[in-house]
Amino acid sequence: MTHIRLKYVQAFVDRKTGVVFRYFRRPGYPRVPLPGLPGLADFMAAYQVALAQAAEPIGAKRSKPGTVAAVVAAYLDSTLHFGSRAKGTQIMRRTILERFREQYGDHPIASVPQKFIAAVLAKKRPHAARNWLKTLRALCQFAIEQQFMRENPTHGIKLPSVKSAGHHTWTDEEIAQFEAKHPIGSKARLALGLLLYTAQRRGDVIEMGMQHIRNGAVVLRQKKTSKPMIIPIRPELQAILDGTPSQHLSFLTTRTGQPYRPHDFTEQFRKWCDDAGLPKRCRVHGLRKAACRRMAEAGYSANEIAAWSGHATLTEIRRYTDAADQERMARNAMARENVGRTKTVKLT
């Protein structure tokens, strides 16, 4: 039977019996078991019923009015405050608020003091703390508008500045080391190619498939920013795609033929890096940075690089172009100096 990929359908294999169970799993909706195989009448009927079911706000049935849990549920169910955010922002905020609700859900939100928020943030790593502060600030602002709170306890909280270069940018030597271990035709090399030659984020790469290829370009809408992208396919990537046949809608799939979930892909990519003997600093996001670095070194402008990567601002892009311009100008100056030294003097 032809492989059918349906949205929100996940398969699980019972380790003892080997039987495959399939469920309709959609964030914010009840989980529904699906009978039979995808494509068959009973399965498709149950799938359509599951698609039509109403959303079930998280914690709505077990939350007391005015508690953190109740306000979180209302916020996540709000189209204006939460639903209008970019997909990537929604995923990040939902994850944070779920953790916050699990730990402090029974607390009255009206009595949450600033020192309590500060104490929660103090337990987080610097970058995580910033995401938590933005998320809790949005939640508290929503609570004020809904008259659950009078003042926003996140106002006035300042986090220490984070001085970091972020994820390590892969060097050309590290890329070559990965390629030497994983030749064209392997899933690892396909993953590297998609990341490096499209300059897209992990969440977009793991969903790429033949349905995104149109007129020699990858056409997609970024999950984090909802920005539409048309990315020309470089010859290097085309060679990898030609050498890696796929029978699924997604280029990158697990052993069971299912698309990778973000965390699972990160773990698998780490294993591929370990197999190639690469250090722990070589991570998925570093290939997006390496793609930008290579374009800067090739003379692309900041705006041209952003047209490939889809960065919303040019701040990070300019780091690559400034560094590349500095090196290029320094080498040009040295070349002129060498020419001057070797220039012969013509005697009259």
Folded structure, characterized:
- This protein has 348 residues and is mostly helical.
- It has 3 domains: 9-52, no CATH class; 68-145; 172-331, Orthogonal Bundle (hpI Integrase, Chain A).
- The chain is built from 14 helices and 6 strands.
- The strands form 2 sheets. A 3-stranded antiparallel beta sheet has the order 1-2-3, covered by helices on one side.
- A hairpin with a 6-residue loop joins strand 1 (9-13) and strand 2 (20-24).
- Helix 8 (187-198) packs antiparallel against helix 10 (235-242).
- The longest helix is centred in the last third of the chain and has 28 residues, at 315-342.
- The protein is globular.
- The protein starts with 8 loop residues before the first strand and ends in a 6-residue tail after the last helix.
Structural key phrases:
single chain; 348 residues; mainly alpha; 3 domains; globular; disordered C terminus
Topology:
Blueprint: E1 9-13, E2 20-24, E3 32-34, H1 41-52, H2 68-76, H3 79-83, H4 87-104, H5 114-122, H6 126-145, H7 172-181, H8 187-198, H9 202-205, E4 213-214, E5 217-221, E6 228-232, H10 235-242, H11 262-275, H12 284-297, H13 302-309, H14 315-342
Antiparallel strand pairs: 1-2, 2-3, 4-5, 5-6
Helix pairs in contact: 2-4, 4-6, 8-10, 8-12, 12-14, 13-14
